[in-house]
Amino acid sequence: MNRALPLAMLVGLTLQGCIFSPGQHMDTGQLVREGSPESSRIELVPITPKLVAIEAASDHSNVVAPELLHYQPAEYRLGAGDLIYITVWDHPELTAPSGPQQQIEANGRLIRPDGTLFYPYVGSIDAAGKTIDELRSIIASRLSKVVAEPQVDVSILRFVSQKVTLSGAFGKTGQIAITNTPMTLLEAVGEGSVQVGSADISGLVLKRDGREYLLDLDALNRKNSNLHNLYLKNGDQLHLPYNDQKKVYLLGEVNSSRSLVFKGSNMNLTDALGSVGGLRQETSSGKEVYVIRGVENLADEPVKVFQIDLKSPSAYALAQHFKLRPQDVVYVGPADITRWNRFISQVFPSANLLSVGANIKDDLGTTN
């Protein structure tokens, strides 16, 4: 026993050094060893009401560029590919030259690629760029030379010339036509049919006139959203990205370590922890809850690590207002007793060896 006792004391001293020495675990005072190269790359930021207020004030996801909201569609102007139907009252030979038994489209007039249109007794007309009323007036004016006081009506059978293009996480991608009824952003999104569950609805990109605008469809659920006032115009492109890269990772002493996919633009710390069953009551340290947020360039700016003490129930209210960002890592550290127990389990074979050695010495002493 005289030899076993000093060895047991040495193991105990080693145990204390392994568990409680700086740099072995996260705590509010020291994330890494002081003076190490890593220490200058990490900035510890306590989560406080002031921090939450500052981040909320800097959130502009609900803001839509003024030039998008100021755009108001003008009257529809005809273009190449549009199919129109011209009615001349009391003159069926002009209205339906193919015969009334034919389908209506068979008597339609197609605007040719060069923007022109031919009509009997009228000749070729530059139809592209004109409104329906303007085209009707031209036809009536020219027909008046052969028809007394012609009554002319013009309608569009098929809209082709003005389009909006959808791509990405839509159920229906490709081009959709703009008609003489102005198309809103929400109507286009509805026609495209968003793939629920796999689309990043907070990352919709509108490309217009060489510029890109980021639009958050999730903002429709918020107060004072003005997305429903946004109209689309010819040539607009809408790209809806997938959300497979927008995740938050929960690690450490939580009931279910896993990643969570953003379903909208907002995910707060309380929601994230609740989604994985919360903290492990037996093993977690409520004061060691961290949100690790990376940066694009580690050489120029430090990684931010946000810390909150969830031992207090009121802290959960604060966590509910702390918004997470894609690729954040939420880490919950273990309690001190958990570190001790884990170490014991790791050195248990050595402990057994010491016990066996002590028993052998006892046996030898007894024998003597």
- The share of residues in helices is 25-40%
Element order: H for helix, E for strand: HEHHEHEEEHEEEHEEEEEHEEHEH
Question: If you compute it from the alpha carbons, what radius of gyration comes out, rounded to the nearest whole angstrom?
Answer: 36 Å
Major beta sheet summary:
6 strands, mixed
The low-pLDDT segments are 1-33, 349-361
> Number of DSSP strands?
16
Q: Class of the largest domain in CATH?
A: Alpha Beta
Tell me the span between the first and last alpha carbons: 15 Å
Q: How many domains is the backbone divided into?
A: 3
Descriptive notes:
Residues 72-156 form the Polysaccharide export protein N-terminal domain. One of its GO terms (biological process) is monoatomic ion transport. InterPro entries: Poly_export, Poly_export_N, SLBB_dom. Belongs to the BexD/CtrA/VexA family. This is Capsular biosynthesis protein. The protein has 368 residues and is of the alpha+beta class. The protein has nine helices and 16 strands. It has three domains: 24-59 and 245-339, Outer membrane lipoprotein wza domain like (Outer membrane lipoprotein wza fold like, Roll), CATH 3.10.560; 66-73 and 162-240, Outer membrane lipoprotein wza fold like (Roll); 82-158, wza like fold (2-Layer Sandwich), CATH 3.30.1950.10. The strands form four sheets. The protein has a six-stranded mixed beta sheet. A five-stranded mixed beta sheet has the order 8-7-11-9-10, covered by helices on one side. It has a three-stranded antiparallel beta sheet with strand order 3-2-6. The model is unreliable at 1-33 and 349-361 (pLDDT under 50). The two termini are 15 Å apart. The radius of gyration is 36 Å and the shape is rod-shaped. β4 and β5 form a beta hairpin. α1 (4-20) runs antiparallel to α9 (336-367). It has helices spanning 4-20, 49-57, 66-70, 92-95, 132-143, 185-192, 269-275, 314-320, 336-367; strands at 42-46, 83-88, 109-110, 116-119, 123-126, 152-158, 163-168, 174-177, 204-208, 211-215, 237-240, 247-252, 258-261, 284-293, 303-308, 329-334. Helices cover 27% and strands 23% of the residues.
